Amino acid sequence: MGIRSAFAVMAGKLTAKMLHIMGRGATSLPGVVMLKICPNVLGAMAKDIKVICVTGTNGKTTTCHAITDIIEANGYTALTNSAGANMLNGVVSCFMNAATLTGKVKRDYAVLECDEASLRHITKSFGKLDVTVVVTNVFRDQLDRYGEVLTTLDLIEQGLAHIPQVDLVLNADCSLTSSLAFSTKHKSVTFFGVNTSFDEQSSADISDAVYCIKCKTKYKYRTHTFGHLGDFYCENCGYSRVKPLIAVDEVKAFNAASADVLMSIEDKQYDAKITLPGAYNIYNGLAAAAIGKVIGLDDKKIIASMSKLTTPFGRMEHIPLGDKGVEMILVKNPAGFNEVISFLTAHCTADDDILFGLNDNSADGTDVSWIWDVEFEKLSTRIAQIGGDKQTFFFTGKRGEDLEVRLKYAGFDTERFTLDKDYRTLIQTLKGTGRHTYMVLSYTVMLAFRDKLGEVVELKKYAR
Amino acid sequence: MDRIKICHLYHDVLNLYGDTGNVVSMRKRLEWRGFDVEVSDLSFGDFDKSVKYDIIFIGGGQDFEQGILTEDLFKYKAGWLTEQIENDTVVLAICGGYQMLGNYYITDKGDNIKFLGAVDFYTKASSPRMIGNIVYSTELNGDSPVAAFENHSGKTYLGKGVEPLGKVIKGFGNNGEDGGEGARYKNVFATYGHGPLLPKNPVFCDSILLTALKKHGVNDLSELDDRIETAALKNALALYG
Question: Does residue B75 contact residue B44 with C-beta atoms inside 8 Å?
Answer without folding.
Answer: no
